[in-house]
Specification:
The complex is a heterodimer of chains A (227) and B (346). Chain A has 227 residues and is an all-alpha fold. Chain A contains 11 helices and no strands. Chain B folds into 2 domains: 227 residues, Rossmann fold (3-Layer(aba) Sandwich); 111 residues, RNA polymerase II/Efflux pump adaptor protein, barrel-sandwich hybrid domain (OB fold (Dihydrolipoamide Acetyltransferase, E2P), Beta Barrel). In chain B, the strands form 4 sheets. In chain B, strands 3, 7, 8, 9, 10, 11 and 12 form a 7-stranded mixed β-sheet that branches. A 5-stranded antiparallel β-sheet of chain B has the order 2-1-4-5-6, covered by helices on one side. Chain B is elongated, with a radius of gyration of 24 Å. Classes of the chains: A mainly alpha (227), B alpha+beta (346).
Chain lengths: 227, 346
């Protein structure tokens, strides 16, 4: 039994989640500050959530393929992205990005403006305000978005198979392994990967339900229980 | 000394505020949505005015011509928000520590906790505090940052009646000790009257001149100020016989004029209208009681001239005085004492 799809999937999903976390939170913070162009930027950044993954894969091939500008640039350094393991990360990241971006944005908008104003009048720098006020208050939303992004990255199929292909031991993830197994009529393997994916899915849902509770919400609950 | 002269334009709203305040509590009295908070936010640097100047003790905080606009962090202005804006994820102690910028943080924390009666609450989260404790925490946090100006935005509105009087007493004591400029913004004439030395009325985005609080309540001068100080009865005025004007909305009764004219409106407080025996003095007319409202210690009578439509006059007084007249349909002679009538501009 070749376990490489599990490793590749988890490795890809973790790396993609890390990337989308930083990019998504950063984008959410700066999208808030854009004036007139906010709508356009918001649309573009949300697009991967709405488009079919195959279309995203197609666009990624156009942008990163051998004949594209980026592809030629990479070839100059003797690198090639298409059909490489890194391509699975790129595909998963692009598809998962809007989940972090949107939830983070929503979470930032929920933060009480007066808290931010109060922090300013008390002399906190903008940087300090972001890390000590905005991020902690937005934490439940951001954590939820990040877990969703991980789940999405783990289950990524369409864009991955277009950009990275389905090469066993190299770019074959669990999702694409199920596809290959069904194509080859190997029911047993298909069931196995389906089972692994379901177990992981349950774990993610469990974490999603219990983790984002922060300490001050626990405090609030304690008070309600007591009063 | 705070000098403010600003103009702010927003899509559907504009604000003009021009005033100075010394070492005193200056009250800004206005209805909700009239621009009170916006004024404070401009002074604190949270909002930016379009034109003008804000100068605090000679320090220029904002000057549109010179292109100066200090960020809120450098203004040293303490702002007490209506909802206190405590950081919900920080304990009382952590909240207080945010404002303290000096070296001896521990000592200052200790002092703040003691002087604001927060001992034993240091490790609690804001959601675990009562309304009064939350306000003390917010004030302590502000004082930890050593503000040179204090802005209070409806400081008592978030409290229920039971807590209000106690917290108000604490706040009054605190303001007396803090001998710097304080702006106290409220829609409540009672709060403003209790806390402030001087008052400026803010109506429709325009700040009226600062006056002594007694002067404002005795002679509001404008219709908006009269309403905000709690006067319930207003009427448009028309021409009358020499020395008199006609109150158009009060059934066309003629009023003796004892102050400057022309004025557009007349107003009289509900408790200033008195019972009269006969038509033997100025401004006595017969009225009909339309409706009676019984309050805890007083009757409120809504009366009008018999046979006239228009606005009802509201008369209020102690129960024992008005008992016999507190019946709908009853006729009664009332005097609108000439000295108690306000003559108002728009």
């Amino acid at each position: 039994m070749d376990l490489s799809p599990l490793y590749i999937s988890v490795k890809t999903a973790l790396l993609a989640t890390g990337l989308t976390f930083f990019l998504g939170v950063y984008a959410a913070r700066y999208a808030q500050k854009l004036g007139r162009w906010q709508g356009v930027v918001d649309g573009v950044l949300t697009l991967p959530l709405v488009l079919p993954p195959t279309v995203i894969g197609f666009f990624l091939l156009l942008f990163l393929g051998r004949n594209s500008f980026c592809g030629r640039f990479l070839q100059y350094f003797n690198m090639n992205l298409v059909f490489s393991w890194e391509a699975t990360v790129v595909a998963a990241s692009v598809v998962a990005f809007p989940l972090v971006y949107r939830t983070a944005r929503g979470a930032f908008e929920q933060v009480d403006e007066n808290c931010i104003y109060a922090a300013r009048t008390l002399g906190m720098s903008e940087n300090e305000i972001f890390w000590r006020i905005i991020m902690p208050l937005a934490r439940p939303g951001i954590v939820a978005g990040t877990i969703l992004a991980f789940a999405r990255a783990l289950g990524e199929f369409g864009a991955t198979i277009m950009l990275a292909g389905n090469i066993p031991g190299k770019t074959q993830t669990m999702a694409t392994a199920v596809y290959s197994a069904v194509q080859a009529g190997d029911q047993e393997t298909a069931f196995l990967w389906a089972a692994v994916i379901m177990v992981l899915a349950f774990l993610i849902v469990g974490v999603l339900n219990y983790w984002p509770e922060s300490y001050y919400m626990q405090g609030r609950r304690r008070r309600h229980a007591g009063g | 000394m705070l000098e403010v002269d600003i103009k702010v334009k927003r899509q559907d709203f504009s604000l003009v505020a021009n005033f100075t305040a010394g070492q005193e509590v200056l009250g800004i009295l206005g209805a909700s949505g009239c621009g009170k908070s916006l004024t404070l936010k401009c002074i604190a640097g949270i909002e930016t005015p379009d034109f003008g100047k804000i100068i605090l003790d000679g320090r220029v905080l904002f000057d549109s011509e010179a292109g100066i606009n200090l960020p809120p962090q450098l203004r040293r202005v303490g702002y007490l928000f209506q909802d206190y804006a405590l950081f919900p994820h920080m304990t009382v102690r952590e909240n207080l520590a945010v404002g303290i910028r000096d070296q001896d943080k521990e000592l200052q924390l200790k002092n703040l906790v003691e002087s604001f009666y927060l001992s034993g609450l240091e490790q609690r989260y804001p959601s675990e505090l009562s309304g009064g404790q939350q306000q003390r925490t917010a004030l302590a946090r502000i004082f930890g940052s050593k503000p040179e100006l204090l802005l209070l935005d409806e400081p008592l509105t978030a409290l229920d009646d039971y807590l209000k009087s106690q917290v108000a007493a604490e706040l009054a004591a605190l303001l007396q000790k803090y001998s710097r400029t304080t702006l106290f913004v409220s829609h409540s004439r009672d709060e403003i009257y209790r806390f402030c030395d001087k008052i400026a009325v803010l109506a429709d985005g325009e700040l009226e001149p600062v006056r002594l609080k007694t002067a404002v309540f005795e002679n509001p001068q404008t219709l908006a100020a009269s309403r905000l100080t709690g006067c319930k009865n207003h009427s448009r005025l028309g021409q009358g016989r020499p020395g008199k004007v006609t109150a158009l909305d009060w059934g066309g009764i003629e009023l003796v004029v004892k102050c400057k004219l022309p004025a557009l409106y007349a107003g009289i407080r509900a408790h200033d209208i008195t019972l009269a025996e006969k038509l033997c003095a100025d401004n006595i007319y017969e009225f009909e009681v339309v409706r009676v409202l019984e309050e805890v210690f007083s009757f409120v009578l809504l009366v009008r001239r018999p046979g006239f439509a228009g606005e009802d006059l509201r008369v209020e007084g102690p129960k024992e005085v008005w008992q016999d007249y507190a019946v709908a349909g009853k006729r009664v002679y009332l005097q609108l004492p000439p000295g108690k009538i306000f003559f108002l501009d728009a």
